Amino acid sequence: MHAPDGSVREAYAGYQEWLGAQDESWMRSKNFEAESFFRRTGITFNVYGEDDAEERLIPFDMVPRIITAGEWRRLSKGIEQRVRALNAFMHDLYHRQEIIRSGRLPERLFRNNKAWLPQMVGFNPPGGVYTHITGIDLVRTGPDEFLVLEDNARTPSGVSYMLENRETMMAMFPELFSKVNVRPVSDYPRRLANSLAACAPEAVAKGSGGKPTIAVLTPGIYNSAYYEHAFLADQMGAELVEGSDLRVVNGRVQMRTTIGFKPVDVIYRRVDDEFLDPLTFNPASVLGVPGIMDVYRAGRVTIANAPGTGVADDKAIYSFMPDIVEFYTGEKPLLPNVDTWRCADPDSLKYVLDNLAELVVKEVHGSGGYGMLIGPTSSRQEIETFRAKLIADPDNYIAQPTLSLSTCPIFTRKGLAPRHVDLRPYVLCSPDGVEITPGGLTRVALKKGSLVVNSSQGGGTKDSWVLDD
Questions:
Q1: Which of 26, 114, 277, 363 is the most buried (most CB within 10 A)?
Q2: Domain span holding position 350
Q3: What is the pTM (predicted TM-score) of this model?
Q4: Domain check: are 58 and 142 in the same one?
Q5: β-strand partners of 341
Q6: Which PANTHER family match (predicted)?
């Protein structure tokens, strides 16, 4: 909110003026009001592997994270460039593999990659879209420096929190939004529905009278993101289904209704590849639909995101993203990566082992803040334990420098205090083009000094504002 000299940054000028006129005790009461709002609405997430608290309230901070219109324009160009490159990369990887033939990407990165699906080879998904919904995790390390921390192209989550954060802020501080001109995000469900409909199989969509039937496929109520699955289905006017609600009938995926089975045209799946079809992948799965991959490959249903897109989430692949962007766009990346050491490389592994206390080490398929080491905040024993893991399986890890992440203020009992943040903008891709939600989800490390923003690891969320011109 403030520059090093104490002056208010341009993005926060309007908000700071409003905040300075508010009574502190009133602000504290509003903070409690926000928590009760989230509790009444049921905005929760599940934590696996913990007996004492399976379901938790998502922590929310009421001080917004604010980005100027000019900053957002620059970010949007880089995000769109990256998402277009990711989609082209997915198509190439399952077809001619030109990037591997060129020597820009080692073949071993996907030949032994469990996220790469041979069942997708040679198949063109409806509309040519693989990455229908993408979350690009960004961190800021300077006034004009944003870096991409991760790409989420499999089943990116958190968008419901983005929407509820905004609704909560508008309910608590309506006068603030008349003072500060903030771009809206409430139309995301409508745009998501339109984007998914545009990706429906052409023949199927015509047979549905031009309005495809969309369903959100959830693993069920015990999934950590079930609230989001139900929320998005409701907001889109789509069906919320589990695998047991669907079956293949007459060559179509159809859902059970009170008057019989009804065909489904587009499935926004929140079930991982492994469990999607027990006839194709894990035979023990009860979460998916037997035969759905046959229907998909026959062009009679759209699955979003396309099976096999998890390759793009691989952190070893991530380290090649500058080459991937340049290969498919012919342009230098507008958004740089974080420097990354691939532990599969002997020289890189030696450097990482020699500097573990200063680095962040992650599993290539890890997520949610699990399976990682943050060297500067780890004990000597934790570092040595991780050293043994690296030596035993170096291909499973990458390492990055410990970044000096930007901070945003949060509201505490003692007033405003800085905490580290990241940003996850949500990107929709269809044959009609690429749409980027203005802002996205800001995740914040609520613990003082912490760099881990994941809600499962003690992080929270805050509203993300993009100012209008």
A1: 277
A2: 341-401
A3: 0.91
A4: yes
A5: 399
A6: BLR5612 PROTEIN (PTHR34595), SLL1039 PROTEIN (PTHR34595:SF7)
299-309: b or e for each residue (b if 16 or more CB lie within 10 Å)? ebbbbbbbbbb
- Tokens linked to 371: 């399976």
- Within this chain, do residues 291 and 409 fall inside the same structural domain, yes or no? yes
Which of 377, 401, 425 is where one domain is finished? 401
Say yes or no: 390 and 431 in one domain: no
Burial class (CB in 10 A: 0-12, 13-18, 19+), 114: exposed
Last residue of a domain, one of 401, 423, 444: 401
Distance CA 61, CA 412 (A): 9
Which pLDDT score is estimated for 33? 85
Q: For 121-147, write each residue's pLDDT tens digit.
A: 999 999 999 999 999 999 998 877 899
User: pLDDT at position 42, please?
Assistant: 62
In angstroms, the CA 135 to CA 83 distance is 9
Q: Which strands form 359-363's sheet, in the order they lie side by side?
A: 341-342, 397-401, 359-363, 372-374
Q: Is residue 435 part of a domain?
A: yes
Structure tokens at 284: 């023990």
Give one word for 433, left, alpha or beta, with left for phi > 0 and alpha for psi -120 to 50.
left
List, for residues 146-176, the tens digit of each pLDDT value.
999 999 998 898 999 999 999 999 999 999 9
134, 160: one domain:
yes
Cα(94)–Cα(123) distance, integer angstroms:
7
The total number of structural domains in the chain stands at 2
Residue whose tokens read 């009679």:
300
Residues 245, 296: one domain?
A: yes
Same domain, 312 and 236: yes
C-alpha 256: how far from chain center:
30
How much is the mean pLDDT over the chain?
A: 90
